[in-house]
Design goal:
Structural class: alpha/beta
Radius of gyration: 18 Å
Oligomer: single chain
Helix content: 40-55%
Shape: elongated
Number of strands: 12
Strand order of the largest sheet: 2-1-3-4-5
Strand content: 15-25%
Number of helices: 9
CATH superfamily of the largest domain: Response regulator
Number of domains: 2
């Protein structure tokens, strides 16, 4: 599963892309702020950015420039209403991997995302089935199924999203805000504290020793407390 960060100031477009990308099997983060996008790139290390150049607080070209100056090779698909040849050349010269102009087909964006990830090798390190803690926890992305000690868990979509987000980088603390963004979308303001209730339910389903699997990080959020098997 690849993680795609959508940086787009128009909410309707942002949510439209989220729906199409999630249907294609990607985990999606989103924001309408260039400054927030830079923070999320540092914290979440997405596999690809879909980046609008016309952001209200920080020009998308500046976001792209800063990402590249940090030495990151995170693939970037530029999305913009600037259709001129000079603008396209500018975006590509700053290090964009592809360029789509508005209005666009969301299906085309999904296909271009797949093509860019394919060229970069992004999202291919993780197989469909991942095992953690010596086989204690198994996550099957293709079937959207998680098993603990051989027992299949009956998870809600939110619980599945929390578990797979934590399992994407075992041991790494995820803030409540980040989990909200991954699981429910950027627009769900005020949802952060309810993450605790979902984690409580998830732990009940995990059974004995669940607090060691989904571990609390005081003052931050949660992390997966068992290592991935190799």
């Amino acid at each position: 599963m690849s993680t795609v960060l959508v940086v787009e100031d128009e909410r309707e477009i942002r949510e439209l892309l989220r729906r199409y990308l999630e249907r294609a099997g990607h985990a999606v983060l989103s924001t309408g702020s260039g400054a927030e996008a830079l923070r999320m790139v540092d914290e979440s290390e997405p596999d690809l950015l879909v980046l609008d150049l016309g952001l209200p607080d920080l020009d998308g070209a500046e976001v792209l420039r800063e990402v590249r100056q940090d030495g990151r090779r995170t693939p970037v698909l530029v999305l913009t209403a600037r259709a001129g040849v000079d603008d396209r050349i500018r975006g590509l010269s700053l290090g964009a991997d592809d360029y789509v102009t508005k209005p666009f087909s969301p299906t085309e964006v999904v296909l271009r995302v797949a093509a860019v990830l394919g060229r970069s090798g992004g999202g291919k390190d993780d197989p469909d089935v991942r095992s953690y803690g010596g086989g204690r926890l198994v996550v099957d992305d293709l079937r959207r199924e998680a098993r603990v000690n051989g027992r299949t868990l009956d998870l809600t979509p939110t619980e599945w999203g929390i578990l797979t987000s934590l399992a994407s980088v075992p041991g790494r603390p995820f803030s409540r805000y980040e989990l909200v963004n991954r699981v429910r979308g950027y627009e769900y303001a005020g949802y952060e504290r309810s993450i605790d209730s979902h984690v409580k339910n998830l732990r009940q389903k995990l059974g004995p020793g669940a607090a060691a699997v989904v571990a609390t990080v005081t003052g931050v959020g949660y992390r997966l407390g068992i290592d991935r098997d190799h």
